[in-house]
C-alpha cells in the first residue's frame, strides 16, 4: 500500500511539473508576441490610433474586441484599399464612418505581425478596462486627501465665533449675578471698588516700573523694529513676483491630459522653444489635427471651432467668423530682461520641467518658478555648462590657446561675425 501511494505521489508531482512547464512556456510565448505587437503598434499605428480613444482612426481596443473576424482584420490592416475597392461591406462601412479618411496600407506586415498587434491591443485594452474598474476607489481616495482650505477657514471661523459668544455670555452672566445680588439688598459694590482701586494702583506701579526699565524698553522696541523690518523686506522683495500665478484660461485645456496621460511631446505644440527666443502658444490649427474628430460634441471643443470659424457639420472654415482665442499669459518677464528658450533648452539641455515644474501633471498651468533675477543668477552660478560638441565653446577654447601663445586673436574668432551677435 505504502509503495503504491508513494508511486502515485511521484506520478502526480511529475504531472504537475510538466503542466507547470507547459503553462510557463505558453506564457513566455504570449508575452513575446504581445511585446512584438506593442513595438509594431507604437511604430506604425499610434500616429492615427490610440487603444482607448478615437483619434484619426477608431479607438482600437473596443474596435478589435467587437470585431472578432481576425481574417478580415488581417486583410484590412495589410491592405484596406483592396477591401474598399472590392466593396467589402464592413470595410465600406467604417471607411464612410470616418469620412473616407483612408488608412495607410501596410503590405510589409506579415500575418504573424498583424496577429501580434491584435493580441497586444486586445490584452492591453483588457488590462486598461480592469484598471479603470478599480480606478474610482483610488480617485475618491485622492479627492479625500486632506480638508480643503474652505473647510479649514470655516472651522477657524466657528472657533472664533464660539470664543466671542463665550466671552459675551460670561460678561452677561456676571452683570446679571451682580444685579440679582443688588436686588436682594446685598451690596458688594463698595467693597469691590475698594479692592479694585487697590489692584489698579498696584498694576499702575508695576507698569511704571517696567517703563523705567530702559533695557526692557529697548528690547521691546528692538523686537518690534525687527518684526516690522523683516515683514517690510519680504513684502518689498516679493512685489512683482508672481510665483504661483494661475489665471483662468478661456478653454479648459489640460496639460495633465494632453502632455501627461496622452504623452504628447512638449515640442509638438511648443516647437519654437527649441528654435528661438519664445516657446510660443500653439495655434488652434494644431488642436484641430485631433479635435476635428475627437470630442466633437464637447462645448469646450466648440470654442475651438468658433474661434476658427469652423462648422463641424459641413467641415468648412469661414474666416470671416473667426475670432482668436485670448489665452491669458502666465509667464512674463519685464522687457528689460532678455530670455531665450533655445539657448537654455537646446544649447543648455535644460528640461522644461526644471523651470516650469511638472507641467504634465497640471490641469491648469501656474507659474512654478519666481522668475526673479536672483533665480536666474543662482542657476547660472550652479549649473555646469556642457561644452562638448558645441562649436561656440570650441572657438572660445581655440581663442584661449592663442591668447596663451601670444598669437593674434580677432573679434571674429570670438564670434563677432555671427549674424545674431549684432541682429536679433
Ligand atoms: C494614417 C493614419 C492611420 C494609420 C497610420 C493607421 N490607421 Fe487604422 N485606421 C485609420 C482610419 C482613418 C480608419 C477608419 C477607416 C478609414 O477611414 O479608412 C482606420 C481603421 C482601422 C481599423 C478598423 C477596421 C474595421 O473595419 O474595424 C483597424 C482594425 C485599424 N485601423 C488598424 C490599424 C493598425 C493595426 C495600424 C498599424 C499597423 C493602423 N490601423 C494604422 C487610420 C490609420
Ligand atoms: C497639445 C498642445 C500642447 C502640448 C503637448 C503642451 N502644451 Fe503647453 N500650452 C498649450 C496651450 C494651448 C497653452 C496655453 C493655455 C494654458 O496656459 O494652459 C500652453 C501653455 C503652456 C505654458 C504657459 C505659457 C504662459 O502663458 O506662460 C507653459 C510653461 C507650457 N505650456 C509648457 C509646456 C510643457 C513643458 C509641455 C510638455 C510637458 C507642454 N507645454 C505641452 C499647449 C500644449
Ligand atoms: C494628439 C491629439 C490631440 C491634440 C493635438 C489636442 N488634443 Fe485635446 N484632446 C485629445 C483627446 C483624445 C481628448 C479626449 C480625452 C477624453 O476622451 O476625455 C482631448 C480632450 C480635450 C479637451 C477636453 C474636452 C472635454 O470636454 O472633455 C479639451 C478642452 C481639449 N482637448 C483642448 C485642446 C486644445 C485647446 C488643443 C490645442 C492646443 C488640443 N486639445 C490638442 C486629443 C488631442
Ligand atoms: C531656464 C528656464 C526655462 C526653461 C528650461 C524653459 N522655460 Fe519656458 N519660460 C521661461 C521663462 C523665464 C519664460 C518667460 C519668458 C518671457 O516672459 O519673455 C518662459 C515662458 C514660456 C512660455 C510662454 C510663452 C513664451 O514663449 O514666452 C511657454 C509656452 C514656455 N515657456 C514653454 C516652455 C517649454 C515647452 C519648455 C521646454 C521645451 C520651456 N519652456 C523651457 C523659462 C524656461
Ligand atoms: C535652470 C538653470 C537656469 C535658469 C533658471 C536660467 N538659466 Fe540662463 N543659462 C543657463 C545655462 C546652463 C546657460 C548656458 C547655456 C549654454 O551652454 O550656452 C544659460 C545661458 C544664458 C544666457 C546666455 C549667456 C551667454 O554667455 O551667452 C542668457 C542671456 C541667459 N541664460 C539668461 C537667463 C535669464 C534672463 C534667466 C532668468 C529669467 C535665466 N537665464 C535662467 C541656465 C539657466
Ligand atoms: C558686427 C556686427 C554685424 C554682424 C556680425 C552682421 N551684421 Fe548685418 N548689419 C550690421 C549693421 C550695423 C547693419 C546696418 C548697416 C547700415 O544700415 O548701413 C547691418 C545690416 C544688415 C542688413 C541690411 C538691413 C537693411 O535693412 O538694409 C542685412 C540683410 C544684414 N545686415 C544681414 C546680416 C547677416 C545675414 C549676417 C550674418 C552673416 C550679418 N548681417 C552679420 C551689423 C552686423
TrEMBL record:
It comes from the Bacteria. PROSITE patterns: CYTC (PS51007). Gene3D superfamilies: Cytochrome c-like domain, Cytochrome C3. Keywords: Heme, Iron, Membrane, Metal-binding, Signal, Transmembrane, Transmembrane helix. The keyword Signal applies. Residues 1-30 form the signal peptide. InterPro entries: Cyt_c-like_dom, Cyt_c-like_dom_sf, Multihaem_cyt_sf. The keyword Signal applies. The chain crosses the membrane at residues 150-169, 216-234. SUPFAM superfamilies: Cytochrome c, Multiheme cytochromes. PANTHER family: CYTOCHROME C7-LIKE DOMAIN-CONTAINING PROTEIN, LIPOPROTEIN CYTOCHROME C. This is C-type cytochrome.
Amino acid at each position: 500500500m505504502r509503495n503504491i501511494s508513494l508511486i502515485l505521489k511521484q506520478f502526480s508531482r511529475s504531472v504537475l511539473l510538466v503542466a507547470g512547464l507547459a503553462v510557463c512556456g505558453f506564457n513566455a510565448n504570449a508575452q513575446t508576441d504581445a511585446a512584438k505587437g506593442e513595438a509594431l503598434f507604437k511604430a506604425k499605428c499610434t500616429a492615427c490610433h490610440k487603444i482607448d480613444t478615437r483619434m484619426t482612426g477608431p479607438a482600437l481596443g473596443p474596435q478589435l474586441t467587437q470585431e472578432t473576424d481576425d481574417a478580415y482584420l488581417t486583410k484590412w490592416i495589410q491592405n484596406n484599399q483592396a477591401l474598399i475597392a472590392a466593396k467589402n461591406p464592413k470595410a465600406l462601412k467604417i471607411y464612410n464612418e470616418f469620412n473616407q479618411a483612408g488608412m495607410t496600407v501596410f503590405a510589409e506586415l506579415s500575418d504573424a505581425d498583424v496577429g501580434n498587434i491584435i493580441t497586444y491591443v486586445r490584452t492591453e485594452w483588457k488590462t486598461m478596462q480592469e484598471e479603470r474598474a478599480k480606478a474610482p476607489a483610488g480617485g475618491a481616495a485622492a479627492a479625500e486627501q486632506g480638508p480643503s482650505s474652505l473647510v479649514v477657514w470655516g472651522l477657524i471661523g466657528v472657533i472664533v465665533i464660539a470664543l466671542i459668544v463665550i466671552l459675551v455670555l460670561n460678561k452677561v452672566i456676571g452683570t446679571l449675578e451682580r444685579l440679582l445680588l443688588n436686588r436682594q439688598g446685598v451690596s458688594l459694590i463698595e467693597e469691590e471698588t475698594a479692592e479694585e482701586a487697590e489692584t489698579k494702583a498696584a498694576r499702575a506701579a508695576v507698569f511704571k516700573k517696567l517703563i523705567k526699565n530702559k533695557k526692557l524698553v529697548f528690547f521691546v522696541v528692538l523686537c518690534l523694529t525687527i518684526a516690522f523690518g523683516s515683514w517690510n523686506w519680504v513684502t518689498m522683495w516679493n512685489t512683482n513676483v508672481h510665483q504661483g500665478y494661475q489665471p483662468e484660461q478661456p478653454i479648459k485645456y489640460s496639460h495633465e491630459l494632453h502632455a501627461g496621460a496622452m504623452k504628447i511631446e512638449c515640442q509638438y505644440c511648443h516647437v519654437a522653444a527649441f528654435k528661438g527666443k519664445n516657446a510660443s502658444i500653439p495655434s488652434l490649427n494644431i488642436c484641430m489635427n485631433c479635435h476635428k474628430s475627437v470630442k466633437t460634441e464637447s462645448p469646450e471643443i466648440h470654442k475651438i471651432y468658433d474661434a476658427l470659424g469652423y462648422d463641424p457639420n459641413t467641415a468648412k472654415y469661414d474666416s470671416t467668423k473667426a475670432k482668436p482665442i485670448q489665452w491669458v499669459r502666465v509667464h512674463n518677464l519685464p522687457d528689460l530682461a532678455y530670455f531665450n528658450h533655445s539657448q537654455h533648452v537646446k544649447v543648455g539641455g535644460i528640461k522644461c520641467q526644471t523651470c516650469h515644474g511638472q507641467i504634465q501633471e497640471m490641469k491648469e498651468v501656474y507659474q512654478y518658478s519666481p522668475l526673479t533675477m536672483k533665480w536666474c543668477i543662482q542657476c547660472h552660478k550652479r549649473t555646469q555648462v556642457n561644452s562638448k560638441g558645441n562649436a561656440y565653446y570650441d572657438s572660445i577654447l581655440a581663442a584661449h590657446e592663442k591668447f596663451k601663445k601670444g598669437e593674434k586673436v580677432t573679434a571674429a574668432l570670438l564670434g563677432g561675425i555671427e549674424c545674431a551677435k549684432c541682429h536679433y
